[in-house]
Amino acid sequence: MAYEKKIPVDLDCPLRLTMSLIESKWKSCILDELRDGEPQRPSEIHKCLPEAAPRVLDIQLKEMVEDGLVTKTIYPELPPRSEYKITELGLSLLPIIDLMLKWGEEHFDIFERKYGEKIAKRPL
Q1: Most CB contacts within 10 A, which of 20, 23, 34, 78?
Q2: 3-state SS, residue 69
Q3: What CA–CA distance (Å, rounded) separates 4 from 22?
Q4: Vertex 64, ends 86 and 80: CA angle to 5°?
Q5: 3-state secondary structure labels for all residues of 76-111
Q6: How far is it, in rounded angstroms, from Cα 34 to Cα 91?
Q7: What is the distance between the alpha carbons of residues 37 and 23, in angstroms, rounded to a whole number?
Q8: CA distances from 40 to 3, 14, 32, 50, 83 (A)
Q9: Which phi and psi (to 5°) does residue 100 adopt?
Q10: pTM attached to this predicted model
Q11: Cis peptide before 79 (omega within 30 of 0)
Q12: 72 pLDDT higher than 80
């Protein structure tokens, strides 16, 4: 059974519309991993985000295909192979993600205070 949102998306609010595409925990990270435009197999995406459950990533990739942020190509071979690639629509969200990355780097001290030793600094 597919998950259905309890609160409908507000079509009068562009911010909520944008957030509806990238609001989950991993969608922005998936777009960031696909930013170079090269197709990636699901296992490659899973390796880049090891702290995410594979099932969660698979669900979010499926939603991203439905939303037009990525494409999925399934190759008719045995065993079947599939790849995901970012679309023009997905690429158009990268400037927003870049600003979020920059803001996070500029305000890293907030996260150090909040999470202390639990946080691992992202390599620049």
Answers
A1: 34
A2: coil
A3: 16
A4: 75
A5: CCCCCEEEEEECHHHHHCHHHHHHHHHHHHHCHHHH
A6: 9
A7: 22
A8: 26, 30, 12, 15, 5
A9: -65, -40
A10: 0.82
A11: yes
A12: yes
